[in-house]
Amino acid sequence: MTARPRGSDWRRDVAIGAIVLVVLASLPFVTNKGIVFVAGTLALHVVFGLSWNLMFGQTGLVSFGHASFFAIGGYAFAWTAKVAPGIHPLLLFAAVGAFGAFVAFLVGIIALRRSVGVYFAILTLALSQIVYLLLSYIPALGREDGFTGIRRPRLSLGFTTIDLASGENYYHFMLVMCALLVAGLWWVMHSRMGRVFKSLQQDAERAAFLGINVGAYRLSSFAIASGTTAIAGALYAPWLQLLTPEIAHWTFSARPILYTLLGGVQSFWGPAVGALIFAVLEYGTRTLHGLSEIVIGSILLLVVLAFPGGLLGGLSRLRKRMSRKPALVARPEIVR
Amino acid sequence: MSDRSPAADPLLVATGVVKDYPSVKVLKGVDVAVAEGDTFAVIGPNGAGKTTLFKVLSGEVFADSGTVRFEGQDVTRMPEWKRVRLGFGRSFQVARVFPELTTDENVVIAIEAYERNSGKRPTHRLACRPSADVRAAVEETLLEVGLIDKRDEPARLLSHGDKKRLELAMSLALRPRILMLDEPTAGMSPADRRGATELIAAIRERHNMTIVLTEHDMGVVFGLASRVAVLHQGAVVATGTPAEVRDDPMVREIYLGSEPVHA
Amino acid sequence: MLALLFGPLFNGLFTAMVVFLFATGLTLVFGILRILNFAHGGFFMIGAYLAFSLVKTFASDTSLVAYLLISIAAGIVVGLCGLVVERLVFRPLQHVDEAYSLIATYALLLISEGAVKAIWGVSFHSVMTPTALGGAFMVDDLVMPLFAIFIIVLGVLCYGLLEWILQHTATGKLMKSVASDPWMAGMLGINVPRFYAWIVVIGFFLAGLAGGLLLPNQTLSPNLASVFVVQAFGVLIVGGMGNIRGTFLASILLCVIDSYGSVIFSQVPGIFFYVAMAVMLLVRPQGLIAGARL
Predict the structure, then answer these.
(1) What ipTM did this prediction achieve?
(2) Is the pTM of this model over 0.90?
């Protein structure tokens, strides 16, 4: 929420979204498969980051286990598609999303009991460890070798059937799905519910004194973000056609945190910008294997210490400084 | 010395409230009864337990023993958000508003909370902007507290006095039955203090509000209060009309012995 | 017969003391500074790897004295790293939302994990137990390795020492007062920032020391940090968020339950720890010993 008049927000965001979508959709016609693969994965990571920020920037919850839901979504989709191949893919995606939200609900009942932020942070980390353990040991899910042979489904839409396995169909399908998920997140953040979330991020106790059931709303935010991420994970399974337990590991949970801090916590597109920057960095250093943890960690640390508001936060501060009188606060105070 | 309102059952009753913190007994069996329409002031030296009593009454903390009843209902262990839905409003000593949001947006949240609490279904479920009803109510509230020209300011940039007004506006937006003001004029200049007192009085008249407040400033207390309770070291030592309390010798000793009385 | 009944108990106690030795530094830092130091796990790992290199370079891995000295050396090196971390990371983030210090220590964990991989590689390493601690006691069919007994005794001694310091010495009173009210402590003339720096150094020292001491027990791999970190956080929370007694009791409770659970349900080892943790938190969210600062 900003001080600018309501109307301009959604027009600007729709424009940005449309442009990005068109650019991404046209990539298979202008570049090679490698870039297309990065672009498709980027789209998923954008959803991954935006949904994390629904919890963090919008509701004030820090999760260190967001990757669990990505993994849960992926594996749930892959396994169900394998044992019940007749299920319509769209239905399966929806079901996986609901399942992810349900798991978040169960976890949230324990993890959101106390309003101390550290409590939730630790328990989400524990969740990711549990998921990782389960994925590494359950034979039906492939264990450390991973879940292989995931097929891209045939999508029947009533009037026609699209074979997502042929050509770049799956890529375009994924883009459409991601666009829908991003739009959904945008809607949540700007809706009445999103405003309640924002009040929790600003001052949860004050919100409680407005009669807001803080626990229930936090749970909702967690469930929505997790369900969305689960769908992203489910989209990932047929994209890569292979899943390994690594996507549940907490190092993967660092990604959305990094994207958000890098790109900007308070801006809707912040995590998307961060994801893009990171994708470029990763692609640029892809030959230097094994440095990724140091790179991720160092960048994250630098960003936290230098720009808590992220890149877009820094840019907006710069813009304000250049257009008006100097801002009253030198460093944006992040309020609990 | 103390007298009960002859009218109907009191709106808010606390009986035998005890609250301990790890090394200190803060409230040692406090009884207060607030009748509907009262402006009830709780006064006492620093450390007497005023803010803790407030917290117990409003639900921010729970009493260790004793009861709190609102409209006859036992709310002793009811969390604050449920009490708000029953009709409590609360303002904080240091005004708490949502700092990064504008004045307007702060009030929007309060009004939408009110609508939700009163079970009103949103007219357009898919809408992103606050509904026309909400926007009208926001406008009205901002006018009432005199913040209409500051509506697009981020709340953290408001002056201290304006923040208190905003907080008051938000509490009012919930149409409370009983408004709890924790040191409403703390830190204000004499001019601001007069303005705040007038605002509170105006609100009381307009909404027929029951008010419970704590204060250090005797001028504010005598100007607004219909009944006063004096808290000292965790217990109520005197209750009555402001005049009765002022003339009570024990109260004079407590005050003249420790604090100067503000004019 | 005994092995069936008491074997898991013994193993559980052993693991509990391992976790406790690791979690002590974490509890101290959290109890006093209210900073959840994710990097504790990373620095534990660095301590262990450092000790490994020192053992391979300087000594035989069979000498008890070398084992103890090297562990202390590892602790000192890691403690010095803690000094740097406190200055460059913790202090600047003191007044910013706690979420950012959480993220910062999380970043430090990633960096230390990456650093270990870069310096020591990804293959597994291990060292032998010092000869003096090799061998085992046998009671009936219950095998109790001497090393495990050593660690259990060490853990209990460590707990005893800390409890004594905290409850019966002036230093302990100082620690508790800074933990519960740093502003007041500052008013009373205590140099709180310097005190904090000391605590961080001690916390890191304990992490490095634990790394060295627990080295003979481990197969060294860069994944070491993750398992320990999450378990330490678990006992921290179940213990009551920042007090030593709670951490000690929670370690025993969770690890013994996990030990018995793993016997019954061995397909997914370690899962019972989290089941027990979840149940404890459902039943008693405030932890075993609630409200105590240290």
Answers:
(1) 0.84
(2) no
